[in-house]
Amino acid sequence: MGIKEKTIQIMSETAYQPLLADDLVLMLELSKNEKKEILKVLNDMITEGYVIKTKKKRYALSEKMGLVVGRLQGNSRGFGFIIPDKNEIEDVFIPADFMNGAMHNDRVIARINSVNTQTSKSEGEIIRILERANEEIVGTFERQRNFGFVMPDDARINMDIYISKKDSLKIKDGYKVVCKITRWPEGRRNPEGVISEIIGHVDDGKTSILSIIRKFNLKVDFPAQVEEEIKEISEKIEEKEILRRRDLREVKMVTIDGADAKDLDDAISIEKMKNGDYKLGVHIADVTHYVKKGTELDKEALDRGTSVYLVDRVIPMLPSKLSNGVCSLNSNIDRLTLSVIMIINEKGEVKSHEIVESVINIDKRMIYEDVSNILENNDEGLEEKYKDLVSDFKLMEKLSLVLRKRRENRGAIDFDFPESKVILDNEGKPIEVKKYERRIANRIIEEFMLLCNETVAEQFCWMDAPFVYRIHEEPSMEKIEEFNKFISNLGYTLKGISNGIHPKVLQNLLKKISGKKEEAVINMLMLRSLKKAKYAVKSTGHFGLATNYYTHFTSPIRRYPDLAIHRIIKAYINNEATPKWIDKMSNKVMNVAEQSSTKEREAVEAERETTDLKKAEYMQSKLGETFEGIISGITSFGIFVELENTIEGLIRLSSLIDDYYIYNHEKRILVGENSRKTYKMGDAMQIVVSKVDVLQKEINFVLF
Tens digit of pLDDT for each residue in 518-534? Predict the structure, then answer.
């Protein structure tokens, strides 16, 4: 046990009282030479936030001193919440007066000042900022007489940044800029900064997307060292590499993806065996053959963590030579893959499987729309065009339905949210917003990928290998009980949840509300009641999928955790997983899991912002027009209404002039004081588009 572990062990003891460094040395029985090391360990733990040093120079674990360490989530109204590092601790509310100069996403330590005994909600005060998150801020520049200031694009940073007269002379009003912080806020004093980059004028159509790219620090270009490395990568596969692999080039297989997809990383082969079992092959691009461990290319891929799919472009994790070229499973070209070949019985159970390094050659590059039209509509033209594959598609459909039924039986939750697709013209202007259909071909690929990921995860969990799992923790009972209270107002209830909740209970509710007007609202609120999935090094299960084992194996072109576990799998296949290698990899996967989770969250947020931006641009051309929608949310300040095309807007309470409306938080309804007229979630209504603020991505409606 190292000095750090011994120190934590001593400090964790119930009887421990804060000690001086010298006293800790005595307790740890350290030599004089080791005293220097303990001081370094203590300082590192203080920097990490795990240990606090009191004014009397005594050391103790932060959590034992009534302190919470975590990330601050800011709010436009000045207050914030700390999302604790430890999952078992609930979020802590920080009033605006107790932020003490902390900004959104800073890593901080807070003191708990009070706890509500009825709700168990904690309220606190930030006492130390461990790590600043916003060294650069994207915003709009405005000039005053003797100075300027930058209004951050991110509303969660609710302080303008002061720019001195000298530093603002070259900047004009209304330009999007990147501002470098030179002095952090203290108390009520605003931060100060200098302009480090001018992005463009707010009225320029390209500026808004570029601002979002800069806000999330997304790297469009690859470093010169990476570009230099990939010059050496050849599309031609050496014969000796083919000879050491399973040759599957004669096996009939296809890729099925979206029409505009270019990074094709999964292919499918299927066969019905004589005994009635299915032989399903999921063949995934062997990216690690080209992205070697420790190269600049590998470091850059880990730094990016994921490809980011913005509304108007893709910012790839790997250069296009790999993502759209040598790694992409394009048809009629030999490609290197990792294949998971599964024997599945008619109940959908995997009887046996093997994972092999392989070489394949895709017969056809199919798109979801065509395969769905063959299976759903018996499209004669497409059936004739792909006559050699139609029987395979029908077999895929049959197996996917068996697999889906099996997942349903164990309680997996299948949210069927209407995703939106924004259609842009050649100049990047939105010309249509519509629901993205999840048809039978999409569901086939989804089922096969789920099964493959689960199968791989279970094998390596039982092997106790260093690995990266995809986990989804059980929801807190507090949130489930709050959700249960809400749905009771709509005539539904979650039964048997006093000792915890099984996903099947939620799945049964989704079946009951299917096709009803309140379906979208309950879906959304249920999702908000659940925790977010993330990457981890221990397989603690996936609540939403109702499985003990899950990972991400099937998309190594666009997700680093998939690439990382391919490397691990190949080490075991090739007998390279020595004890020394396992020890080293055990440390590596922790970093991969943490980095991948962080980058995934950033990518989702960036993707959502660009979509919301284009939706606002689209609705700006619809001012004064009338639409039908349903109430998707009710707050103390207004009613959110979602239209058929997935666009959501706000009816402000101040615009409801026929009565004075009172907000009932528990039932989430608005009730007219005099008329007793009620607005509740799921209600249909007609609205008029009244105002659009593209910069803030806000859409306002009024009642028709």
Answer: 787 888 889 889 999 99
Nearest to 428 by CA among 614, 221, 290: 614
Q: For the chain, what are the domain ranges?
A: 3-63, 66-131, 136-213, 224-424+435-472+537-609, 477-530, 621-703
Q: Using an 8 Å Cβ cutoff, are 359 and 335 in contact?
A: yes
Residue with tokens 């018996």: 378
Separation of alpha carbons 112 and 334, rounded Å: 61
Report the first-to-last Cα separation within the chain, whole angstroms: 70
Question: In this predicted structure, which of 23-32, 155-164, 198-207, 440-449 has the lowest mean pLDDT?
Answer: 23-32
pLDDT digit string (tens) for 383-428?
Answer: 999 999 999 999 999 999 999 999 999 999 987 777 888 999 988 8
Q: Is the dihedral of CA 198, 202, 204, 206 positive or negative?
A: positive
Q: What is the pLDDT of residues 566-620, one digit of tens each?
A: 999 999 999 999 999 999 999 899 999 999 999 999 999 999 999 999 999 999 9
- Say if residues 610 and 209 touch (Cβ distance below 8 Å): yes
The helix or strand, by DSSP H or E, that contains position 407, with its residue range, turns out to be helix 390-410
Q: Quick: pLDDT tens for 281-290.
A: 999 999 999 9
Decide whether 136-213 matches 621-703 in CATH topology: yes
Handedness of CA 572, 575, 576, 582 (dihedral sign): positive
CATH architecture of 136-213: Beta Barrel (2.40)
Q: State which amino acid sits at residue 473.
A: E
323 within 8 A of 563, measured Cβ to Cβ: no
Alpha carbon distance 366, 439 (integer Å):
14
* Count, residues in the chain: 704
What's the pLDDT tens digit per position in 45-69?
A: 888 888 888 888 888 888 878 888 8
Residue matched to tokens 């959502």: 608
Domain 3-63 indexed as CATH 1.10.10.10: yes
**b/e per residue 171-195 (b: at least 16 CB within 10 A):** beeebbbbbebeebbeeeeebbbeb
For the segment(s) 66-131, the CATH number from 2.40.50.140, 1.10.10.350, 3.10.180.10, 1.10.238.10 is 2.40.50.140
Q: Is residue 1 exposed (0-12), middle (13-18) or buried (19+ Cβ within 10 Å)?
A: exposed
Of 403, 397, 395, 407, nearest to 545 by C-alpha is 407
β-strands 107-115, 648-652: how paired?
unpaired
Cα 136 vs. chain centroid, distance in angstroms? 23
The domain defined by 621-703 folds into OB fold (Dihydrolipoamide Acetyltransferase, E2P) (2.40.50)
Half-sphere exposure of 269 (CA within 13 A, CB side): 20
Dihedrals phi, psi of 375, to nearest 5 degrees: -80, -35
